[in-house]
């Protein structure tokens, strides 16, 4: 790590701490040449492989933007979308891969969106999963109803 003060090509780590969200590490460094101290923040890069083959950095904002369209007119706040985007990023990072394609991100969105708002889930799923007919909607709605019934009749602790 180059010193930002004298551009010496090396520095010594004095202290390391994990961020509150656990996704980055803050390091306090000191330059052996000039003695200047500075901080760095390190994160693992996560790239998205788009359908066109283009690779770009993962963006929570893009997740929120895509889901926001499905949530129009629904009782979903920006804070709800931020939490959903964080859940999606955490799920994607847990795969351990530094590159993930857009299809996998879409799959990671479906679960948290379903918990957040079923109507928004259907809207998003209809585009993402390319529903072609009313039967596709009916099948998805039946699955939502069956899952809701299972949750209502689930015994706590099992």
Automatic annotation (TrEMBL):
Q: Does the keyword Metal-binding apply?
A: yes
CC cofactor: Zn(2+)
Pfam families the record matches = ATP-cone, Zn_ribbon_NrdR
Q: Keywords on this record?
A: ATP-binding, DNA-binding, Metal-binding, Nucleotide-binding, Repressor, Transcription, Transcription regulation, Zinc, Zinc-finger
Question: Which molecular function term from Gene Ontology is one that the record holds?
Answer: zinc ion binding
Signal peptide coordinates:
none
Q: Name one GO biological process term.
A: negative regulation of DNA-templated transcription
Q: How, per the record, is the cofactor bound? A: Binds 1 zinc ion.
Q: Where are the zinc fingers (unnamed)?
A: 3-34
Summarizing the function annotation, the protein's role is: Negatively regulates transcription of bacterial ribonucleotide reductase nrd genes and operons by binding to NrdR-boxes.
Q: Which PANTHER family match?
A: TRANSCRIPTIONAL REPRESSOR NRDR (PTHR30455)
Give the family this protein belongs to, as stated in its UniProt record: Belongs to the NrdR family.
For this entry, the protein name equals Transcriptional repressor NrdR
Which organism is this entry from? Microbacterium caowuchunii
């Amino acid at each position: 790590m180059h010193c930002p003060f004298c551009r010496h090509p090396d520095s010594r780590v004095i202290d390391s701490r994990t961020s509150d969200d656990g996704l980055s590490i803050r390091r306090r460094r000191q330059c052996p040449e000039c003695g200047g101290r500075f901080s760095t923040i390190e994160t693992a890069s996560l790239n998205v492989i788009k359908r066109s083959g283009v690779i770009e950095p993962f963006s929570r904002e893009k997740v929120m933007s895509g889901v926001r369209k499905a949530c129009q007119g629904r009782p979903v706040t920006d804070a709800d979308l931020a939490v959903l985007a964080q859940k999606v990023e955490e799920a994607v990072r847990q795969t351990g891969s530094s590159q993930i394609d857009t299809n996998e991100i879409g799959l990671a969105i479906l679960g948290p969106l379903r918990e957040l708002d079923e109507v928004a889930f259907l809207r998003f799923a209809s585009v993402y999963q390319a529903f072609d007919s009313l039967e596709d909607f009916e099948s998805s709605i039946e699955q939502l109803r069956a899952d809701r019934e299972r949750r209502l009749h689930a015994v706590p602790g099992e």
